[in-house]
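Quick one, probably user error.
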């Protein structure tokens, strides 16, 4: 039987963020479904179902979460925020792991669990049509393509992507957006001084020379 998409994604997550906790503290595949359902129930009580998706991406320390996330939450206030850090508390053995390895190592010791939960939770939220703000750096191309296909299948309005760069990379604040609606223009005005806009192609229109797959 061909391997399912979920199984392939889970294998990818385990390969990139392997768990090195005690074997008895690792989450089994069959446990994830119940945990995802619990997360979705906890996070969606006040969320709208308008099939809107906002993606934040940037390097650690770039200001993605501290600077851009509050703006995103103003723009889409009744949305589900999905970030790997939010899943740690749902690990069945979070107390045992923290006691064994220390609070300072808790995130690293639960990376495998959090990234698997993040993908499976995203999948369920998209299938149910909830508004989503995704706060995570870019993943492998194969994982990203699965996410894009899920959004297309469910007719989501993927409104924009904002990318923040760390100060060590550039002395300038750069904002990249596929389109420039008034909300994004407002962000630029609020956080940038003497901003210069560079447009490629026709403003707020797709490029005819680009094949979308």
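Nope, works fine. Designed sequence:
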């Amino acid at each position: 039987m061909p391997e399912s998409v979920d199984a392939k994604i889970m294998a990818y997550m385990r390969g990139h963020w392997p768990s090195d906790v005690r074997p008895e503290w690792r989450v089994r595949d069959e446990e994830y479904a119940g945990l995802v359902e619990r997360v979705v129930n906890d996070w969606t009580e006040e969320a709208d179902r308008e099939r809107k998706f906002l993606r934040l991406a940037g390097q650690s320390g770039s200001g993605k979460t501290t600077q851009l996330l509050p703006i995103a939450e103003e723009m889409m206030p009744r949305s589900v925020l999905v970030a790997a850090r939010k899943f740690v508390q749902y690990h069945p053995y979070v107390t045992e792991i923290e006691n064994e390895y220390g609070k300072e190592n808790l995130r690293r010791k639960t990376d495998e669990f959090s990234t698997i939960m993040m993908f499976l939770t995203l999948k369920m939220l998209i299938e149910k049509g909830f508004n989503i703000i995704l706060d995570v750096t870019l993943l492998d191309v194969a994982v990203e393509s699965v996410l894009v296909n899920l959004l297309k299948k469910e007719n989501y309005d993927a409104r924009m992507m904002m990318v923040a760069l760390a100060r060590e990379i550039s002395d300038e604040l750069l904002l990249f957006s596929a389109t420039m609606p008034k909300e994004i223009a407002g962000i630029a005005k609020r956080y940038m001084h003497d901003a210069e806009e560079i447009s490629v192609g026709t403003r707020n229109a797709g490029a005819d020379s680009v094949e979308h797959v």
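The CA atoms of residues 52 and 131 lie 5 Å apart.
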